[in-house]
Amino acid sequence: MDMESLTIFCAVASELSVTQAAARLGRAPSSVTTRIQQLEADIGAELFVRTNKRMALTAAGERFLEYAQRLLALAEEARHVVTGGREGGTLRVGSMESTAASRLPALLAAYHARHPATRLALSTGPSRPLIEQVRTGLLDCAFVALPPAFGGAAALAELGLASTPVWREELCLLLPASEGQARSAMDVRTRSLAAFPQGCTYRGIAEELLGVAGSTQWQVQEMSSYHTMIACVAAGACVTLLPASVLALSDAPATLTTLPAGEIDTVLVWRAGFDVPAFQHLLAQVGEAAP
After folding, report:
1. Contacts of 96 (CB under 8 A, 6+ apart)
2. Which of 21, 25, 105, 208 is surrounded by the fewest CB atoms within 10 Å?
3. Which whole number is the average pLDDT over 195-199?
């Protein structure tokens, strides 16, 4: 097992096609097939199920993929630290959808202007999965919001993570025009909440404010973007909770009602001791951007 074999395996696992993985890697398909077969023989387990022209990861392959990604990331981290970051490399950044939309464009554009040799790989998701991906090494850092009951920086430290607050977000409940008389969350009559999947801190806050947990009247509609959530609110179908900074970027109708829903910090988290130059540059720039 070597780094090249792991790189080939991860490419095939991503594409689920030897032909497409070979094109992505600039190799002959036969070479990719041979390396996968050698890796499976070395590990002693089949990593892919092959049926006709389709491929899928086996259970062993799914487990091995996480280790392969972590090993490749660790190798790149070691290379960056030893060389002082001369090669730039890749910085894997996770973010909530809201932060990616309203806060990161200016920050990452400025970072790229200063450090063009570093490739930024951005992925989005709810806060809890992002924290876990940082902890396990699948991400180098992530911009998240910690649930009120999480325990803050002390709880992160127990997971081996360091953190720093970056932005304070004003949260608001966005309601249909028909809710114009509502003055508090308890006045809301609509009984459908649009939210991201479980693990989203903002969803948890909304459920707490609206009394969703344990209620048979409420329905939660899971969605993948704020644009869709705002459209559903505009249609009168549901309510949602989002940062005011995201709402300001949208074309939400002026007839919609908003209620204040408190404030929460967006926090940058990373593994304690993570000293890659590319990340240290980002951390310094975040310090400049924070109010």
Report:
1. 124, 125, 126, 127, 130, 143, 144, 145, 200, 201, 202, 266
2. 105
3. 92
* Structure token pair of residue 91: 């910085």
**Whether residue 251 is found in the same domain as residue 173:** yes
Burial (CB count within 10 angstroms: exposed 0-12, middle 13-18, buried 19+), residue 284: exposed
State yes or no: pLDDT of 105 exceeds 90.
yes
d(CA 29, CA 53): 13
Same domain, 33 and 164: no
Residue identified by tokens 């973010």 is 95
Q: Which two tokens stand for residue 267?
A: 């926090």
Domain residues for the domain of 199 are 169-263
Say whether pTM exceeds 0.85: no
Query: Looking at the predicted structure, is the pLDDT value of residue 73 above 80?
Result: no
Are both 179 and 258 inside the same structural domain? yes
Tokens found for residue 43: 């590990």
Mean pLDDT value of segment 1-30 = 87
Residue 83 lies in a domain: no
**Around Cβ 169, how many Cβ atoms within 10 Å?**
22
The 8-class DSSP code of residue 86 comes to T
CA–CA–CA angle 219, 200, 213 (5° rounding)? 35
Residue 205 and residue 125: Cα distance in Å, rounded? Answer: 17
In this structure, the chain runs to a length of 291
185, HSE (Cβ side, Cα atoms, 13 Å): 18
27, part of any domain: yes
Q: 3-state DSSP call for residue 228?
A: helix
CA angle 134-135-141, nearest 5°? 25
Taking the C-alpha atoms of residue 132 and residue 41, their distance in angstroms, rounded to an integer, is 31
Q: Whose structure tokens read 């829903």?
A: 261
Confirm if 229 and 194 have CB atoms less than 8 A apart. yes
Q: Which residue has the tokens 């903002």?
A: 202
**Residue 166 dihedral angles phi and psi, to the nearest 5°:** -120, -55
Residue 159 forms part of a structural domain? yes
